């Protein structure tokens, strides 16, 4: 079939047609371009790789095989109120919507009802790897991890930590208590013995809601436990940035607060990073901490427009995040579209501000389709330090993949067809249609590590 994946930031490989082999252990054995219209080519490839032709599957012309999408920043407890509150800026939105909703996860039963819905929705949208935030609660966050294990998603799961500026009844009583709970939760996680596919991630919510004592305690803990992943929010909204400056006057900048407390590591994921200086970007590059770009959320909460090109030019790792419920969609395809729009907006603003024609011409290069798909897949994998396992179809990696059917959906009469395909011949144009106009109805199958986790018609598959 037609196979599309990223080789690097700028290189999108389109194999039309191509053949991909998956071995019994769920790893990619080979991926090759075939000569179009030469049936012998397939037979030769199979022989060369010692593959059985009995287990061949041919994908129809209107189908694409893509690597699984990676959501590097998403809040599971917020799924329930997605789509509300977008007239409020970040800090008011947290107080009015987020904290009261997250507080409800004190009940394990509530988590058991809500988390499977969030994780299944994420998988249904083609997200094969997600970096989830839970809540303050050890018990509910354990439910979230078990949900990822059960549904088959590859995931990082974080118990949120906050010891100040929370909501009524939604804040931990001290840094010490937050650290005790985090250690307990990590011990429980180890007892789950779920292997590498579902892993814990240390999660100070953001500098506004954590004291310096808690931030450095979590930095130490991540290091002492063998270099655990870390996730938090950075420089999302102007009022938030001003508040952090008041709370941490001794640090050079907001990014500097995290560095000063030992939280910037090559396994740190920083969501948003809208309001950064050149020095901040250099700091991220030098520490190896990377950015989860959440453009849908940045529009939803009116936070600003992130200059992803500047991050890439500074050498920072970048992936995409849905940031539900700051973002209104679990779909990383939606995040790709918004990333393209955001990048073009940055370009137009820079163009308008340029002082002469030459400067205007060189103001900005917007993200290309290839670059944006990289952010959604291989870039996310590099950000999470799992690119030796997933992110593209390189042989040896695990088979995390989507079968995209661009001719899916209802009858012509019902008008329910999500994408009209007029021409199956041009694979690059099919891929462009996938990015700009497909929706979850076009994702007919989802695989993680070679196992199907969303079935042909989207039915649930518990593994
Ligand atoms: N900053 C601190 N907490 C949050 C959150 O839950 N969502 C978003 N978008 N930003 C935050
Ligand atoms: Fe967030």
Automatic annotation (TrEMBL):
Record-level GO cellular component terms: cytosol
This protein's record includes keyword rRNA processing: no
Pathway membership: Purine metabolism; guanine degradation; xanthine from guanine: step 1/1
Top-rank taxon: Eukaryota
Keyword terms of this UniProt record: Hydrolase, Metal-binding, Zinc
InterPro entries: Amidohydro-rel, Guanine_deaminase, Metal-dep_hydrolase_composite, Metal_Hydrolase, Metallo-dep_hydrolases
Enzyme nomenclature, EC number: 3.5.4.3
Enzyme class per UniProt: hydrolase
Cofactor: how bound: Binds 1 zinc ion per subunit.
Residues covered by the Amidohydrolase-related domain: 65-453
Molecular function as annotated in GO: guanine deaminase activity; zinc ion binding
Pfam families documented for this protein: Amidohydro_1 (PF01979)
Cofactor(s) annotated in UniProt: Zn(2+)
Alphabetical GO biological process terms: guanine catabolic process
Coiled coil (residue ranges): none
Zinc as UniProt keyword: yes
Catalytic activity, reaction form: guanine + H2O + H(+) = xanthine + NH4(+)
Similarity-based family: Belongs to the metallo-dependent hydrolases superfamily. ATZ/TRZ family.
Function: Catalyzes the hydrolytic deamination of guanine, producing xanthine and ammonia.
Name of the molecule in the record: Guanine deaminase
Species, as recorded: Geranomyces variabilis
């Amino acid at each position: 079939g037609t196979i599309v994946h990223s080789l690097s930031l700028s290189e999108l490989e389109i194999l039309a047609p191509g053949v991909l082999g998956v071995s019994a252990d769920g790893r990619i054995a080979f991926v090759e371009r075939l000569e179009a219209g030469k049936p012998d080519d397939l037979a030769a490839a199979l022989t060369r790789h010692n593959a059985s032709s009995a287990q061949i599957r041919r994908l129809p012309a209107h189908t694409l095989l893509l690597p699984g999408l990676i959501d590097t920043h998403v809040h599971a407890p917020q799924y329930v109120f997605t789509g509300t509150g977008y007239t409020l800026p970040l800090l008011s939105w947290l107080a009015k919507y987020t904290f009261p909703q997250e507080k409800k996860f004190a009940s394990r039963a509530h988590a058991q009802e809500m988390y499977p819905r969030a994780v299944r929705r994420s998988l249904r949208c083609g997200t094969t790897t997600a970096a989830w935030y839970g809540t303050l609660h050890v018990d509910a966050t354990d439910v979230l991890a078990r949900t990822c294990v059960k549904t088959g998603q590859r995931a990082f799961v974080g118990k949120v930590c906050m010891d100040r500026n929370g909501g009524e009844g939604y804040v931990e009583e001290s840094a010490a208590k937050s650290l005790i709970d985090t250690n307990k939760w990590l011990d429980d996680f180890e007892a789950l013995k779920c292997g590498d596919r579902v892993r814990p991630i240390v999660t100070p919510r953001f500098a506004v809601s954590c004291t310096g004592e808690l931030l450095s305690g979590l930095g130490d803990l991540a290091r002492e436990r063998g270099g655990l992943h870390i996730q938090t929010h950075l420089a999302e909204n102007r009022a938030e940035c001003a508040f952090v400056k008041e709370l941490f006057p001794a640090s050079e900048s907001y990014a500097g607060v995290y560095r000063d407390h030992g939280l910037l590591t090559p396994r740190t994921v920083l969501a948003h990073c809208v309001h950064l200086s050149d020095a901040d970007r250099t700091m991220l590059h030098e520490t190896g901490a990377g950015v989860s770009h959440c453009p849908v959320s940045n529009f939803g909460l009116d936070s600003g427009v992130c200059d992803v090109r500047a991050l890439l030019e500074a050498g920072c790792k970048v992936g995409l995040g849905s940031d539900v419920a700051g973002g209104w969609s679990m779909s990383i395809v939606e995040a790709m579209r918004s990333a393209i729009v955001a990048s073009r907006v940055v370009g137009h603003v820079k163009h308008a501000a340029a002082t002469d024609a030459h400067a205007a011409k060189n103001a900005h290069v917007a993200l290309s389709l290839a670059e944006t798909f990289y952010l959604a897949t291989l870039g996310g994998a590099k950000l999470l330090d799992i690119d030796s396992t997933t992110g593209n179809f390189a042989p040896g990696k695990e088979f995390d993949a989507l079968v995209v059917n661009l001719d899916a959906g209802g009858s012509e009469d019902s008008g329910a067809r999500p994408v009209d395909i007029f021409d199956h011949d041009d694979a690059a144009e099919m891929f462009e249609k996938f990015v700009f106009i497909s929706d979850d109805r076009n994702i007919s199958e989802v695989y993680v590590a070679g196992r199907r986790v969303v079935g042909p018609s989207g039915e649930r598959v518990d593994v």
